[in-house]
Design a protein that fits this description.
The complex is a heterodimer. Chain A is mainly alpha-helical. Chain A is built from four helices and two strands. The two termini of chain A are 54 Å apart. The chains are: A mainly alpha, B alpha+beta.
Chain lengths: 216, 126
């Protein structure tokens, strides 16, 4: 701070310039704080939704696994594994992007994830309806996992942006604005000092002139 | 450091679209180009919500994304929605009275963003 103050020329122009910079920095600080609040709100909203989505996704997965176990018990492990190798494994997922205050966030949407038993690819006459149920439960779980993946990536990116914005706000609040204010205080003090100097000098000159007049 | 911060301020509204599009256009192509060169996609389910709120004759006049103006002069965390149709949509979703402009406070903004995360966007003004 001392270094910054010593390099400043104490002139009225500099004082005006610094006051303008303080005003701008203050406006910037307010705006960045608004952004930080908005980001925090998005972050907390997403955290709440993630919590609910995670519970739901795990419940769906656990349901799907128990259905698969039932199917294995009924159809036999080998037959179930055989059916799984015959199943079409490609699922179309549409990944696009959206922007939240400039933060690129992915949008993951599973296209036609819920398939009909006839579209899955395994032979229907050797499989049980339990296999259809298990497959359908896994498809549902996968759709929930896509939602969860989207939200988790979004929260990670928003968290990084939040951290960056907080750093900027802190830099403005604790470094830049105080530095500019101390520079303004320094210039004001120096200008006042110079004004007092001038006043005293003029008084002194006046006294000297008056003394000279008296001598004559 | 000052330069970095001022660059950050310039970047504040860089996420806004180059051109806002109407609901009808968004229903045909839900992707828009942003000022920073990126793209933003509206979710179909949210466009369906807007479709259900507004009659078809208004689909050409509702401009998307709906902008939430964040301005420190409204108070900390408060935002403003401007425009008759935009306000009608927001009022309907939040159970508020319709007006030419609506001031929203933090919990209401959170609720709105929770319901329409892709068709609403923040806009920072001083």
């Amino acid at each position: 701070m001392t270094k910054a103050v010593t390099t400043i020329s104490p002139t009225r122009m500099e004082l005006i310039r610094l006051r303008r910079r303080i005003e701008l920095a203050q406006k910037g600080h307010d705006l960045l704080e608004e952004k930080m609040d908005a980001l925090m709100m998005e972050f907390l909203g997403l955290a709440r939704r993630i919590k609910a989505a995670r519970t739901e996704a795990f419940a769906k997965l656990s349901d799907a696994h128990s259905k698969l176990l039932k199917c294995m018990a009924w159809m036999g492990t080998l037959e179930t594994v055989q059916a799984s190798t015959e199943t079409l494994k490609e699922v179309e997922i549409d990944v696009s992007g959206r922007s939240i205050m400039g933060v690129r966030v992915p949008m993951v949407e599973a296209v036609e994830i819920h398939r009909k038993p006839t579209d899955r690819g395994y032979s229907l006459h050797v499989s049980s309806t339990l296999l259809d149920e298990a497959a359908s439960a896994f498809e549902e779980a996968l759709s929930k996992l896509c939602e969860l993946a989207e939200m988790e990536e979004a929260i990670k990116r928003i968290g990084l942006e939040l951290e960056r914005t907080r750093r900027r706000v802190n830099a403005l609040e604790h470094v830049l604005i105080p530095r500019l204010k101390s520079a303004v205080a320094f210039i004001s003090f120096r200008l006042d000092e110079m004004e007092r100097d001038n006043f005293v000098r003029l008084k002194r000159i006046k006294a000297l002139l008056e003394a000279r007049e008296w001598k004559r | 450091m000052e330069e970095v911060i001022f660059r950050e301020l310039v970047r504040l509204n860089a996420h806004l679209p180059r051109r806002r599009i109407s609901l009808r256009e968004a229903l045909k192509n839900p992707e828009i180009e942003l000022s920073n060169g990126g793209t933003h996609r509206f979710r179909d389910s949210e466009l369906e919500v807007l479709k259900s709120i507004l009659p078809e004759k208004d689909w050409d006049y509702l401009k998307l994304p709906i902008l939430i103006e964040m301005n420190p002069k409204f108070g900390k965390g408060a935002g403003r929605i401007k425009g008759t149709l935009e306000c009608r949509v927001v009022a309907k979703l939040l159970g508020k009275q319709e007006a030419e402009e609506i001031i929203l406070y933090l919990p209401e903004i959170a609720e709105l963003r929770g319901k329409l995360p892709t068709v609403t966007e923040y806009f920072f003004a001083a």
